[in-house]
Amino acid sequence: MLHRHLFAFTLTSTILAAGCGDDHKGSDATTHGNTHPGSSSGDDTAAETSGPETSGPTTSGATGESTGSTTAAIEPPAAPTGLTANILDGGVHVTWKDVADNEDNYILENKADGEADFSVVLEMPFDSVTYHDIDVKAGTAYTYRVKAINTGGESVSDEVTVQVP
Fold first, then answer.
1. Helix-, strand-, coil-residue percentages of the chain, each rounded to 5
2. Which of 10, 67, 121, 161 could bridge to 108 as Cys pair (CB 3.0-4.6 Å)?
3. Taking the domains of the chain in order of start, what are their residue ranges?
C-alpha cells in the first residue's frame, strides 16, 4: 500500500503595474482617469486581478463573487480491522489489517485487567501490521486496540483481550 501525503497548492498571480506616461500630465483627476482604456472617471481606485492573491477565499468586484481557492480537509484514516492477540514466545503477538491508505502512523495501546484507561505501548510507522509485546505479566489479562493517525484525526480499531498464562 502506498503512503500518500496530501499537498496543498496555492495559485499565485503576479500583478504588473504600469505608470502613466508623459502624454497627459493634467492635474484634473477626471481628465486623467478618462485617458486610460476602460476608465470613465478618476474615481477608479481598485485594481482588478486575474486570480487570487491569497490561499483563502477572497471576493472581487461589486458582486462579492468568491474567487479564492480552498484546500480540502484531510479525512481521518480508516480504522484498522481484524485485530488479533495471541500468546507467543513469552509475550503477546498483536496483528491487524492495514486498510487505510492515508495514515501517518499507528499507535498500539493496551490496558491490564482492572485498569480504566489505555496506555501507549508503541507508536509505529505507516503500513505497520504487527507487534510483539513482551512487557506483560503472567496471570494478567490485557486488552489491546490500535489507532490509525494522520493530520485529519484518528480512527480506532475494535478491542481484543488476551489472558497471559
1. 5, 35, 60
2. 121
3. 1-72, 81-163
Separation between Cα atoms, residue 113 and residue 85, nearest integer Å: 15
Residue type, 70: T
Q: Which candidate, 153, 148, 146, places its Cα nearest to that of 75?
A: 153
Burial zone of 29 (CB within 10 Å; 0-12 exposed, 13-18 middle, 19+ buried): exposed
Instruction: For residue 93, list its beta bridge partners.
Output: 86, 132
- Other beta carbons within 10 angstroms of residue 113's beta carbon come to 12
The CATH code that applies to domain 81-163 is 2.60.40.10
Smallest Cα–Cα separation from 118: which of 163, 160, 76? 160
The per-residue pLDDT string of the chain (165 residues; one tens digit each, 9 = 90 and over) reads: 444 433 333 333 333 334 444 444 444 444 444 444 444 444 444 444 444 443 444 444 455 555 566 678 999 999 999 999 999 998 999 999 999 999 999 999 999 999 999 999 999 999 999 999 999 999 999 999 999 999 999 999 999 999 999
pTM exceeds 0.70: no
Looking up cell 496530501 gives: 6
